[in-house]
Amino acid sequence: MEPLPGIRIRRLRLAGIDRTYDVDFTTEQRVRNLSVIAGAFSSGKTAVLEFIAYGFGARRHPRHQEVLRKVRSCLLEVELSGESHVIERSVGEPSKVAFVRRGTLDSKSMSRPESRPIDPPGSPESLSTLLLSHCKLEGVQLREAPTSRESRTDPLSFRDLMWLAFLPNERVADKNFLFENDYMRKHKLRQVVDVVFGVHDDRAVELGQRIRELGGRLSHAKAELVSARAFVQEQAPSSSGDAISPIVYEQELTNITSRLQNLDQTAQAGTAFAARLRREHQQAAQSSRGAAAILRDRETQLARLMPLRAQYADDLLKLGMLGEAQQLFDPLNVTACPACLNRLPAPPTTVGGRCSLCSHDLTGSDGVLTLGAADTARQADGNRVDVAAEIRSTRARLKEITTYIEDLDASLAMLKLQAEDTAILEEEASAALDEATSPAVSPFLAARDDLHRRREQILRLLDQAESTAKLHEGLAKRAATVERHETQIAHLKEELTQLGDATHDRDRIIAKISSRYGELLREWRYPKIGTPFIKPDLTPFVRGEPYQEASSGARTLLTLAWQLAVFEIAVETGAAHPGFLMIDSPQKNLGHGGTLDTVFADAIAIDDFYNHLSVWLAERGTAAQLIVVDNSPPLIAEGDVVARYSRNEDRPPYGLIEDETSAEEEGVRQ
């Protein structure tokens, strides 16, 4: 099967902290032509489409509380011109970059992720440029003033192209469906349609500009390729296209690891007979460690108690000196003159009510003066130190410490002998174990050493092979870029040579779209249809009036018919359309999602809408992809439902974030 052109959506994955939330748009490994997401209101159906748009570069993503609590990144698996890629953007604050890698969500990455900035969209390295290159629209410039040839130009953005690939709920049945309230967006939409179908004004000038732009990019890509080849030749001159793949070394590394495990198991089985000796050695080692620990503990205690005993002995000596001083130096009587130091002829007395030494007034004294009166009073109050009691207490503590130290010292000799004996027993048990197991283990040890040496060698070779593979991957990427630019330039030159009259071609395309628009309305049994048509400015008419004059239910059908007509003609004519279309709420105002328009709800069967999609996809749109969000699709679409959210805890899945239920939401609000 040839790869589908353009872009196709395979899977959406919202990655959280401990789980993921997936929506799969494939069946039997191929993209479904029609995928329907059904379920109750406020269950996350629209968020699926909005996250897909976010993966394609939209500035915002859904910011529901359950999303911000649970989701950390958005991963979108897509097919770009038939090759699977994964686009990843962080969730929370909208990211400024997207990471793109080749491969699928569940497979190992086929290349290192590339960082692609979201803005500016015209940058050669942007995500928009990558996506537009797969729609044959890379390098397209849109004039700010379409009617002025001197107008400045802005690069086409993939966000602009999404107007033709995503019909959100707010645009369905809207009276400003074609951005009539925004002059610049209205004219840009017309330019986008013209560019997609290749019928825009100044096509020759625009094609020439694109050829020149791509020519500059081609020259730059060729220069990068030459520089990269020179670098690879300098870094790995012996490497070539037939170099050994890292997979070969990885397989050999896996084989060595398996052999090591088998060798260990064999060695263990071969030395099972020494189990008794191992146990004896373990017991001897444990006894040796215990005896050594006890010996260290006793030695530590002895080393700490010796200074304490010396301190008590010193305190005892000081107390003895204090007692002797009290006896030798009697502080109770004064026998010498404190001025001349000569012995007094008589002790101090009271003479005329005054002290005989200092003449101080001593009224009421008994006539005898001693300096020990105050000291005696303190002793009577119990504040004087009892030296004899302190000496007795210190001697008792010193005796206890001395006795304990002597006991410890006496036990050390025995503990040292026990530690030496247990150490000898451990050595003997170890020697016996080695003697018994060495003949059986030695061959295994030699083989194990050889395997470890080989493993280290393979690891070095694997690292070199991976480095070489990365260099060649970079070369292949640059060569593919050169080839892509050359192919695009060749196609543009061919288109330039076959260029016809833009006005005539545009009228022809508008006529096709208008005709398909009328066919769809008649197929959906639009009442009193008259002659529906689409004007050159893309405005849809019915019953001779523009779509704004129709009722709400009628506008739903008119906007759906316009969007589908553009999409179907683009697919059938091979236009530069992405190839997929997402529609949100096709039953809006027809029974779901708004004010019920009873006239159209009664007259229109939603079965007709889905029946048309099925028939067209089977006959003329086999290469297209449609994703529809609908609250209650009819039975005819039951086989196309890929996800159905119940918003009922008893019927999972509850919603897109399926582990966020109403009870949990209520708890968060409280």
Keywords:
670 residues; alpha+beta; Rossmann fold; 2 domains; 5-stranded parallel beta sheet; 15 helices
Structure description:
It contains 15 helices and 20 strands. With 670 residues, it is of the alpha+beta class. It folds into two domains: 7-229 and 500-669, P-loop containing nucleotide triphosphate hydrolases (Rossmann fold, 3-Layer(aba) Sandwich); 273-333 and 370-443. A six-stranded antiparallel beta sheet has the order 2-1-6-7-8-9. A hairpin with a 6-residue loop joins strand 7 (83-90) and strand 8 (97-102). The longest helix is centred in the middle third of the chain and has 111 residues, at 387-497. It is elongated, with a radius of gyration of 48 Å.
What is the secondary structure topology, with strand pairs?
Blueprint: E1 7-16, E2 20-24, E3 26-27, E4 30-31, E5 34-39, H1 45-55, H2 65-70, E6 71-80, E7 83-90, E8 97-102, E9 114-117, H3 127-133, E10 141-143, E11 153-155, H4 158-161, E12 166-167, H5 183-197, H6 203-235, H7 246-270, H8 275-328, E13 350-351, E14 354-355, H9 373-381, H10 387-497, H11 502-523, E15 533-534, E16 540-542, E17 545-546, H12 552-573, E18 580-584, H13 598-603, H14 606-619, E19 625-630, E20 641-645, H15 662-669
Parallel strand pairs: 5-19, 5-20, 12-18, 18-19
Antiparallel strand pairs: 1-2, 1-6, 3-4, 6-7, 7-8, 8-9, 10-11, 13-14, 15-16, 16-17
